[in-house]
C-alpha cells in the first residue's frame, strides 16, 4: 500500500518537473529567436492648390541698373619711325703677298782627299820650346812633432800627473803608455773614493802625491797640503788603501804621481 503511494508521488513530481522544464526551454527559445522588424508608415496630406499659386506668384528680383558715362574717343597720333642709319661698308682686306719660293740648297760636296805630304806642307810643325830643367830635390821640409808639449797638454787635461824623477830618458811610446797607466789609476782611485755624506756641497779639495813601484804597489801617500778637514782627508787616504796596487808599470820602473780630489767639481 505504501509502495503504491510512493509511485504516485514520484509520478506527480516527475510530471511537474517535466512541465516546468518544458516551459523554461520554451521561454529561452522565444527570447533568442530573431523577431521581425515592424515598418511604420505615416499619412501626409497632399499640398493644396492655393499653396501652388502663392509659390508661383512670388516676384523675381532683377539685377540693379548702373549709369555708365559716355566714353570719348582718344586722338592717338601716328607713330614716328626712326630714320635708318647709313650702312658703312668695311674696307676690303689687303691682299696677302705670296712669299717667294726659296732657292734649292745645293747638296754638300764630298771633301776632296788630301795626301799626307800636302797636309804637312799646308800645316807645318812648330818646333817646341825647350823646358826649363827642374831641380831634383823638392823644397819640402817634414814637420817636426814635439812630443814633450803633447805630453804636457795631456797631463793638463787629466786629473793626474806623472812626476818623472828617473835618470833614464823615456821614449814617446813609453810616455804615452805611462800617461794611459796614470789615467786608469786615476779612474780606479775615484771609484774607490767614498765621499763623506755630511760634506756634500762643501768646497773642499786636496792634492795627493804618491809613489808607485815597478810592480804597481802604491806607497808613501802624502797630502800637499792637507785640506783642514780631518774627515775629508781620511776618506781620501782610505781610497788609496782600497786600491793598494795599480798593476805593473809599463816602463819597468817606479814613478811618482800627483792627483787632486775635490768634493765639488
Summarize the structure in words.
This protein is of the alpha+beta class. It has a domain at 153-262: Fusion Protein Consisting Of Minor Coat Protein, Glycine Rich Linker, Tola, And A His Tag, Chain: A, Domain 2. Helix content is 35%, strand content 10%. The protein has helices at 2-32, 49-56, 116-122, 147-157, 172-192, 230-243; strands at residues 160-163, 205-212, 218-223, 255-262. The chain has a 4-stranded antiparallel beta sheet with strand order 1-4-2-3, covered by helices on one side. α5 packs across α6. The protein is flat and about 175 Å long. Residues 149-158 have low confidence and may be disordered.
Biggest sheet overview: 4 strands, antiparallel
Summarize model confidence as the mean pLDDT: 76
Strand order of the largest sheet: 1-4-2-3
CATH topology group of the domain at 153-262: Fusion Protein Consisting Of Minor Coat Protein, Glycine Rich Linker, Tola, And A His Tag, Chain: A, Domain 2
C-alpha geometry: flat
Short description:
The protein is of the alpha+beta class and 265 residues long. The protein contains six helices and four strands, in the order ααααβαββαβ.
What does the secondary structure layout of this molecule look like, with pairings?
Elements: H1 2-32, H2 49-56, H3 116-122, H4 147-157, E1 160-163, H5 172-192, E2 205-212, E3 218-223, H6 230-243, E4 255-262
Antiparallel strand pairs: 1-4, 2-3, 2-4
Helix pairs in contact: 4-5, 5-6
